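Chapter review: from sequence to fold.
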Amino acid sequence: MESPIFDNPCLGRIVFSQRPIGPLHIGQLVGSLLPVTNFQEHYETLFIIADGAPGSAVDQQKKKNIHELLAGWLAAGLSPNESVIVQLSQLMELDQMVKILQPLVEDEPVSPLPGASETLPESALLLLFAATHTPAYPSSRSAGDLASILVQRINARYNLNLPTISWLPLPTSQLPGVDGQPMFTARNNAIWLKDSEEETQAKINRLPKNVLQRYVEHFIHEPAEQTRVLTSFDRGDLSEEELHKLLGEGINEGLHSLRVKRAKWLAAPGELDAVLAAGLRRGRTIARQNIQELRLAMESIPANRTSFS
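The token string follows.
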């Protein structure tokens, strides 16, 4: 399916979703957001704000969370000109795609994937935008697997050439939080982008010794400097307190520009709403084209054909 939105040669199309449940933390930044935004030059990228099912209400708290997430995305380098940003609760076309796909699941159940009906909306989102890639998170595996099976069935039955869906390689391990456990919003162990430099340093000072190497690897980018710091630390030439300070200063320096940009975006909610509106228009154009193409293909197949061969 050719898109009227993206006209530059590319390696594929990425659909990336994130729930707006509060401010971004540095684990999300280094683990997914920066790697995905770095693909913008070579891939068509769609960023989905997964704020609820299409048509669901958006109250003031949810809107605040949406603005927090979007401001963080934009500050981290997401370009509303190069990428398409879509607020899921406003994307009514997703319901249409779910209805189109539902018979393909019910007529011939997807036996390797229990709970396919529950996974279908996430899978339909990938097909709605003709995704070629999706981030390889454990939580997204079922949706991606179901989408791949549905693509195979649609292509075989309706003589289409929908793209197969591949897993997008991202960092394989999560950044530890201040308690040494994987950094999660719900665990209250995160270092937030909204934190001040003093708050960030205080949290870095709480990091247990066994996770410091991970932070060195993430935030000291020169391999030679990584080796020098870790060797000095292992020999005892660099104390734990000194390494905490070094990491805090480096992280604060690296986040300074991003924090300034984030604050500017949050101070202009009208501009954030304009980005959302423009992204929704562009996303709907892609979605409607893909729905139309799929419906035309399905209408050309005799109604009594039920097997996928």
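Two observations follow directly from the output. Strands lie at 13-18, 44-49, 84-87, 133-135, 166-168. Confidence is low (pLDDT under 50) at residues 1-9, 303-309.
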